[in-house]
Amino acid sequence: MKLLLLGTSGYHPTDLRQTSCLMLPEIGVVLDAGTAMYRIRDHLQTDQLDIFLTHAHLDHIIGLTYLFDVLYQKPVEHAVVHGESEKLTSIQQHLFAHELFPAMPPIEWRPLTASVELRGGGTLKYFPLEHPGGSVGFRLDWPDRSLAYVTDTTASPGAPYIDEIRGVDLLVHECYFTDDWQQWAEKTGHSCLTAVAQVAAEARVDRLVLVHANPLESAAEPLPLDFVRHIFPNVSMGHDGQQIDF
Q: Cα separation of 176 and 172, whole Å?
């Protein structure tokens, strides 16, 4: 199974990174719809596209407005946007308000259920995360592999969601701040480096890839990963365009 990191920035895009968007092309699944959403067009392989939203902040949903071009003359017959019911309502009422975006793309809106069946015999489950305005994380399981996606939350070694991600082969987790910004991380609902490494170690995941980078950090490697390898060795920084086999 291949996971494409199409957008790995938080808050706003930069010359290096677009905002949150991950894709599993083989099964037509997209996780979040940030500014990288336009890149999906080059990777479509299925006749249905399932877009799962973690929450409704603009850097995670603005790409829904790109769907006219993403789907133009492509084989996708059905595009479904999955999310918490109240978030979907807000998106329809506000992002697609006539004064802002007067034409609704060809979308079916579907509230998240406890378990969603995926192509290839997989299932997707969601779990709550603490974040201003509310957010959720996702765990995707197949008989032979597993993936968890956790974004927009403040990581800590005792975070309730650790049990939800325990033992996954691949954990993709937001990491916006270095450790000296802990107070600001708690205020904004984002994560610092050491805490994310501690979460990965406590959950006993196989691999950790960091996304949702601080856009003010212009380096390709914006976090000092060597500082936390003694906590969790198998950690790397995700990059736009990266393909991960898991």
A: 13
Q: What is the DSSP letter of 104?
A: -
Q: How confident is the model at residue 219 (pLDDT cuts 50, 70, 90)?
A: confident
Q: Is residue 70 included in any domain, yes or no?
A: yes
| The amino acid at 161 | Y
Question: Closest Cα to residue 34, out of 14, 16, 11, 2?
Answer: 11
What is the distance in angstroms between the CA of the first residue and the CA of the last residue of the chain?
6
Asked if the structure places residue 244 within a domain, the reply is no
Structure tokens at 104: 């609704």
- Write the CB contacts of 108 (distance below 8 Å, at least 6 apart in sequence): 78, 79, 80, 81
Rounded distance, CA 33 to CA 17, Å? 14
Report which of 99, 32, 106, 23 is spatially closest to residue 63, judged by C-alpha positions. Answer: 32
Structurally, the chain folds into a number of domains equal to 1
Domain extent at residue 26: 2-239
Specify if 245 maps to a domain. Answer: no
Q: Answer for the pair 240, 5: CB distance below 8 angstroms, yes or no.
A: yes
Q: In three state form, how does the secondary structure of 1-42 look?
A: CEEEEEECECCCCCCCCCECEEEEHHHCEEECCCHHHHHHHH
CATH number of the domain within which 19 lies: 3.60.15.10
- Tell me if 231 is assigned to some domain: yes
Q: For residue range 181-200, list pLDDT tens digits in order.
A: 999 999 999 999 999 999 99
Q: Tell me the two tokens of residue 234.
A: 């198998």
Cα separation, 210 vs 222, in Å, equals 10
According to the model, what pLDDT value does residue 220 have?
81
In 3D space, the residue among 61, 13, 67, 48 whose CA is nearest the CA of residue 212 turns out to be: 13
Pair of tokens at residue 215? 């856009």
Q: Are 110 and 80 in contact (CB under 8 A)?
A: yes
